Amino acid sequence: MADTTFGPQGWTPERLGDLKGKTYLITGANGGAGFQAARTLLKKNATVVMLNRSPEKSQAAIAELKEELGQGADVSFIRMDLASLASVRAAAAEILKSVPRIDALMCNAAIAQVPTQKLTVDGFESMLGTNHYGHFLLAGLIFERIEATKGRIVVVSSLGYNMGIKTIQFDDINWDKNYHQNKTYSQSKLAQMMFAYELQNKLAAAGKMDVQVYVCHPGSSKTSLIKTSGGRLTRFAWWLMTLSPMVQSAEKGSWPEVMCATMDGLEQRALYGPTGRLEAVGPVGKGTLNPHAYDNAVMERLWSVSENAVGFKWTL
Ligand SMILES: NC(=O)c1ccc[n+]([C@@H]2O[C@H](COP(=O)([O-])OP(=O)(O)OC[C@H]3O[C@@H](n4cnc5c(N)ncnc54)[C@H](OP(=O)(O)O)[C@@H]3O)[C@@H](O)[C@H]2O)c1
């Protein structure tokens, strides 16, 4: 049943108050939903630190935002390539040095539907490495600052978590034997959700109730996601889809993550996103969350596999 918490229009940025003094870290904010999230937060006087892999695209994005919102817009970037653990470590060190508070870390960046198996410099399947391991390490390394701020972690996932094998292929987590662009992407987005829900469990067990963790998705939104990493056929099929009403703007796609980064009174064990047709478009609210996304045994195992993979132990 559709969520009616925010009325028939769902949550919109009109609900935002002044965000002066608050700082939001957004991964992958030079384009797509991340860029639009930055734009909305800046319009409300927030400080935004983008964590992007491309300095050129970051400078262009900052120039565009300042052009629209004025030179006083408080936006900057720290270079970070999620596909490299060394780069994530360097970025985290820079964050701890230069960003005094973190009201929300928005884990937004991703690659999708990579047509053939590629490995990151650390030897991880590229989507698992970028989307899950990169964020897992980043969040762990800067958790102390998020906690000191009583901030949040927002994981941007995908309805793709409902597709594919709906679990983690632990015996071949890199998909060496049966790589499949969609199923492997689905695994990476499910892994991100499991990170969030397991973190909720661990925070509750440790009595650390000051940090909140939310999960959302943008539905089907017209961004660069498929153009950046998808194969030719997928790009063509996606382009056709963007001509239909089944795909919404990148701006609307950013609303769930902005809501989860700012709004009080949300549920943590939930999945927020569009609540219209197929939950791919429409008013933003609480969507359907299927239980395979918070299977305790799988989440616990993934957590320790992830700690070993990235060489970092969370202290909770
Ligand atoms: N669009 C949709 O319909 C849809 C549907 C379901 C879920 N999502 C999710 O929505 C989120 C936002 O994606 P989007 O649709 O806005 O896609 P997008 O336009 O392609 O934006 C993705 C961002 O991630 C960055 N990124 C990719 N690899 C990175 C890396 N190794 N290190 C750091 N940043 C990296 C990209 O940087 P570059 O510009 O350098 O490539 C870009 O800024 C993702 O988590 C995605 O899985 C999107």
The small-molecule ligands in this entry are: NADP nicotinamide-adenine-dinucleotide phosphate
CATH topology label: Rossmann fold
* Average pLDDT over all residues: 95
Shape label: globular
Percentage of helical residues? 40-55%
Order of helices and strands: EHEHEHEHEHEEHHEHEEH
State the end-to-end distance: 36 Å
Instruction: Give, in spatial order, the strands making up the sheet with the most strands.
Output: 3-2-1-4-5-6
Number of domains: 1
Protein structure class? alpha/beta
Reading off the top of the CATH hierarchy, the class is best stated as: Alpha Beta
Tell me about the biggest sheet?
6 strands, parallel
Put simply, the count of helices is 9
Name the CATH superfamily classification.
Answer: NAD(P)-binding Rossmann-like Domain
> In CATH terms, what is the architecture?
3-Layer(aba) Sandwich
Number of E strands = 10
> Nearest-angstrom radius of gyration?
18 Å
Strand content: 5-15%
Low-confidence segments, given as residue ranges, are none
Search tags:
316 residues; alpha/beta; Rossmann fold; 6-stranded parallel sheet; two-stranded parallel sheet; globular; binds NADP nicotinamide-adenine-dinucleotide phosphate
Commentary on this structure:
The model has no long low-confidence stretch (mean pLDDT 95). The N and C termini lie far apart (36 Å). The protein has a single domain, classed as Rossmann fold (3-Layer(aba) Sandwich), CATH 3.40.50. It has 316 residues and is an alpha/beta fold. Helix content is 42%, strand content 13%. It contains nine helices and ten strands. Helix 1 packs across helix 8 (250-262) and helix 4 packs parallel to helix 5 (181-205). It binds NADP nicotinamide-adenine-dinucleotide phosphate. Residues 27-28, 30-34, 52-54, 57, 80-83, 108-112, 130, 156, 158, 217-218, 220-221, 223-225, 228, 253 line the site of NADP nicotinamide-adenine-dinucleotide phosphate.
